[in-house]
Amino acid sequence: MPENLSAATAGTWKLGDFTINRLGFGAMRITANPDRDLAIRVLRRAVELGVNHIDTAAFYASPGGTLQVGEGPVRYANELIREALSPYPEDLVITTKVGPGSDPERGFYQATTPAELRAQVELNLRQLGKDTLDVVNLRIIKKPGEDSVAERFGALAELREAGLIRHLGLSNIRPDHLDEAQPIAPVVCVQNSYALDTHREDDAFLPVCGERGVAYVPFFAIAGASREGTATTDHSDAVRRIAAAHGVSEQQIRLAWTLHQGPHVLAIPGTGNPAHLEENVAAGAIELSPAELAELN
After folding, report:
1. Most buried of 34, 70, 194, 280, CB within 10 angstroms?
2. CA 236 → CA 24, 48, 220, 241, distances in Å?
3. What are the beta bridge partners of residue 27?
């Protein structure tokens, strides 16, 4: 592990009017372990290591929830973040998402009306203990011909004008959704599932975001096809060989490849394991040669 381990080695990006380190942290997995103290330690250690961009959501919860794991009393990622880090460092940017939600009566649902979206924004504000959300992504379910974002994004734009939200983004989208949203309000980021071996159809979308000054933020960069399950162990021979040559793990090579896709690409690996956190941060310093990138591709 590098002596001067820091998320800053991955470089920075201007997310709206925030300057953040490109190596961030995804909060989904911190709810999995019943040990709240462990989650608190991981979050505080992330900030100690220079992570100043945390991705979360009000529906990140265990037991059950997105991960479908865990036991004991309910744990919400947002509340763990608040407990660990509030009062928040001035440079810390917390990105959350709305659209998916969980309700005791309705179960898991998709917010589609302005009232439902506002309720989810207000829930995030309460859980995080904030007056204004730094960045809110509208996450959608893609249904071609039925998935216009205009009304929903417009509702969030009104909440932005009202001061509840500072910046807006989109999640799980196609290029036409970005085209539809940008005339309504500025879009600072696109958050899509994308990895070395999955969803490579976004290879063409990724540079479009860069040309427009929009951050591209892949999720499941380490998990790949395993998605919410766990970090994938299904690595190509190229990943294994290059990892061995650098003396790092295959997961670190996957993260390094992600960051090499463009200066506007941000990484948000998540973990509840302190050792894995340090490995993820260290991946920001890995330099891959043009030949290695070509082999990985």
Report:
1. 280
2. 25, 33, 17, 9
3. none
Dihedral of CA 213/214/220/225: which sign?
negative
60 tagged catalytic? yes
Nearest to 281 by CA among 5, 74, 40: 5
The token pair at 182 is 């940008």
Write out pLDDT tens, residues 236-279: 899 999 999 999 999 999 999 999 999 999 999 999 999 999 99
Task: Give me the torsion for CA of 27, 29, 34, 38, rounded to 10°.
Answer: -60
Sort strands 75-76 and 215-219 into parallel, antiparallel or unpaired. Answer: unpaired
Q: Does pTM top 0.85 for this prediction?
A: yes
> Does residue 189 have a pLDDT over 80?
yes
**Torsion over CA: 14, 20, 22, 26 (sign):** negative
Residue tagged active-site, from 60, 76, 88, 194? 60
Classify 39 as helix, strand or coil: helix
* Cβ pair 218, 192 in contact under 8 A: yes
Task: Give the integer Cα–Cα distance in Å for 292 and 242.
Answer: 7
Question: 203-221, pLDDT tens digit by residue?
Answer: 999 999 999 999 999 998 8
In angstroms, the first-to-last Cα distance of the chain is 26
Q: What H or E segment, with its residue span, contains residue 278?
A: helix 274-282
